[in-house]
Amino acid sequence: MAKNEKKAAGKSEGADPSGGEDASKANNTWLYALGAVAAVAIAAGIFIWRDSTPSVAAGEKTDPDLSELMKPGALPDISLGKEDASNTIVEYASMTCPHCATFHKTVLPELKTKYIDTGQARLILREFPLDQLAAQASMVARCAGPDRYYPMVGALFETQESWVAEGSEGTQKLLQIAKQAGFTKEKFDQCIGDKALFEKILETRTRGHETFGVESTPSFFVNGKRLTGEQTVAAFEALFSGAAKPAAAGAEEKAPGEAEAPSGQ
């Protein structure tokens, strides 16, 4: 059975030592069949993900073709930042993953200030749920609408420790967070019971695993270059192109037009 994310951040089972949530042994045949019973799984509130067999052996992964990575999937990509930004970060994340929450709470704000808000980069978040509750949380974010998608994602990661729990308890706690964002219970139940949306989230996860070799969360592709696990702002900066980089430590800034004094005078 999968090492499901059953506990709040910092207490989640199966955390990968490298800073990712492992999903490396999932039974792909079982995942395909899952779509047929999605509605039953949602109604029952059971955990649905199993570990899978890696598509690519550890240490043998190559970066995906960028044009293939950016092709539309089952769900439309929602960009945080300008769509014509010179740098694109594609993130595969599970909403119950504590490492993903850490990125969104501690690293993304600085990236947003320096690069996203200035038009130099954009973020595309794609769903890679590792358990039933994570799938439900992803559905709620989608149901919030494109304009409220990232605020909803941010609120869910910010409050992750308060709603991650097993079974129906987790769903009820998720409902309380959704209500704070304007959801009624009727809208919430309709959202997490949407079989078509659930299956598209499943397709997004399956494509990430089978086509791009995603096996843990968070997994990033920066202009097509793979980064896995918790990362620093510097790790993203190293892969950015055409973006203004921070000045080197100790470098002196000169006022515009200021010239150096001739030597020997």
Reading off the top of the CATH hierarchy, the class is best stated as Alpha Beta
Helix content: 40-55%
CATH architecture: 3-Layer(aba) Sandwich
CATH topology: Glutaredoxin
CATH superfamily: Glutaredoxin
Enumerate the spans where pLDDT stays under 50 for 5 or more consecutive residues.
1-19, 23-58, 247-265
Total of helices: 11
Strand content: 5-15%
Largest beta sheet: strand ordering: 3-5-4-7-8
Taken together, the total number of domains comes to: 1
The tally of beta strands, per DSSP, is: 8
What's the gyration radius in Å?
Answer: 20 Å
Account of the protein in words:
The longest helix has 19 residues. Helices cover 41% and strands 12% of the residues. Helix 4 links the parallel strand 4 and strand 5. With 265 residues, it is α+β, with helices and mostly antiparallel strands. The strands form two sheets. It has a five-stranded mixed β-sheet. It has one domain: Glutaredoxin (3-Layer(aba) Sandwich), CATH 3.40.30. The N and C termini lie far apart (77 Å).
